[in-house]
Amino acid sequence: MKEFDEYLAMVNQAIANLRLPERPAGLYDPIRYTLDCGGKRLRPVLALAACHAMGKEPMTAVHQAIAIEMFHNFTLLHDDVMDNADVRRGRPTVHKRWNMETAILSGDAMLTTSTMLLAIKAGEHLASALDLFNGTAMNVYEGQQYDMDFENRLDVTVEEYMEMIRLKTSVLLGCACGMGALMADADFDSQLQFFNYGVNLGLAFQLQDDYLDTYGNPETFGKAIGGDILNDKKTWLLIMALKEDEKGIVKSLIGKNDNPEEKIEKIRGVYDSLGLPDRIHELIRAYIDSAIACLDQINMQPEARSFFIDLALKSATRNK
Amino acid sequence: MKEFDEYLAMVNQAIANLRLPERPAGLYDPIRYTLDCGGKRLRPVLALAACHAMGKEPMTAVHQAIAIEMFHNFTLLHDDVMDNADVRRGRPTVHKRWNMETAILSGDAMLTTSTMLLAIKAGEHLASALDLFNGTAMNVYEGQQYDMDFENRLDVTVEEYMEMIRLKTSVLLGCACGMGALMADADFDSQLQFFNYGVNLGLAFQLQDDYLDTYGNPETFGKAIGGDILNDKKTWLLIMALKEDEKGIVKSLIGKNDNPEEKIEKIRGVYDSLGLPDRIHELIRAYIDSAIACLDQINMQPEARSFFIDLALKSATRNK
Known about the structure:
The structure is a homodimer. By secondary structure, the first copy, chain A, is mainly α. The first copy, chain A, is built from 16 helices and 2 strands.
């Protein structure tokens, strides 16, 4: 196995080597801009590492890895239009920098391009890779739809929330891991365990995201703290508080943004009084444990297993 | 060979048999609504007929045929958002009936679903079918981008316009014909000639669309006449008039909509004085002849050839 940053370098090189057409510039420039955004590149790294762990050169899965990264960036682009978000990773979003039409059309082109990348050197795995990729994509759209549906509801259950984040964010990490194993000719059970590892990792990752949005250090987190609270976003924290806060403080503050700082402070106070910071970390730890348990079902070298265990443990304790 | 309406019945049955998930309704209801729109179903019929003409049962290509129809409807859905169109085939567009977010997300799901359909029973042709389909999709996006770029230009040339409509609308008809031939195990040259037949048919079809928008009978055409003129749309007619109208009447009317009826009448007067109605029909006839010439390069039964010749001749003389 290699270090995370070595797989990352392979991914970044492959993205830099992509030769998109120059014209029409209005279609392809926004795609270059979006891919050039930085980002953790967690998904393609997982794909290369899973492929390597299953005994093949990591670059065997490189086209499928960047197909998944392209897909991920496409979803961010279209999500930003739907959320009317102004900024993504410190830069104007595509629909702000260009316009809404450009953002929709360039996103469509990214989705088709991701399928084209997926097919490159897929060989005998093409049909399976497409099934995994397309099925995952449909899950992501379903998750996004549930997320939008939840905006108008106060009765979202924890089970509904966990299913939404499983669909919207976790299955794509599962897909990345499973895709790497598939491209390494791994048996179906190993692909499935890698998929499940990724899903559990994704759930832990999203819950940590929810935690950091309210409790993170603004300097390391990279964006303002409390955004989810001000947007009344139905996160695990808010859903638990709506359910358990007997005084109805949280419910009374939903939809009220005349005093943002006070709202954040009051709602965080409820979270604290219910012990939610500790309880979300117990839950995160449970998903990390489940992720690691999946690894035990896969026949691989100890150093490969360590790579994925370390990654899981780090994602549970990350501060950005 | 069968009649057009018999292939159409197969297509409509296959679309009716599609089993999309029920939930989340916000994602899947707009897809059902869009597919239920009617429409000519020209592309999937071409795919089944080309497959049949090449000696296989038409239903051999049915999944690929409805994949292309699904893709076509996806492009209409997203185009309507980009154009902020209120009505499509006599019904509210998805973003009017629901909202912009729903229209974007449901469209994305239709694009992924079209790729899933394409893969069903594609067998050994999967890689080729995907190449043809994805390459065509990229062309369609490029054409849409050029079309949007042209809105801000008065110096669009006829060559640029023909390339734009080739990309935006014609290659998808070529793709449908080529896909049918591919699924029938036809040799590559026959696939290519079928593709070229479809492209030429598509160019004739679009030019006839341009003609009908200005010169059609409102009762048979199904929408108000003169919409392209009022939108200053860079059609073949407008581009030719901008180039040849020495008095500058057309140019002086661009962007002015205070008297719509007079604008339509004046610009149509210029078209008439330049003989454009006759000249566009000469051009349409030339593309139809090119389409028919492609058929001569394909080894098929006379009744199969007649089917495609009739279709081409009808599309050049259609009034709706």
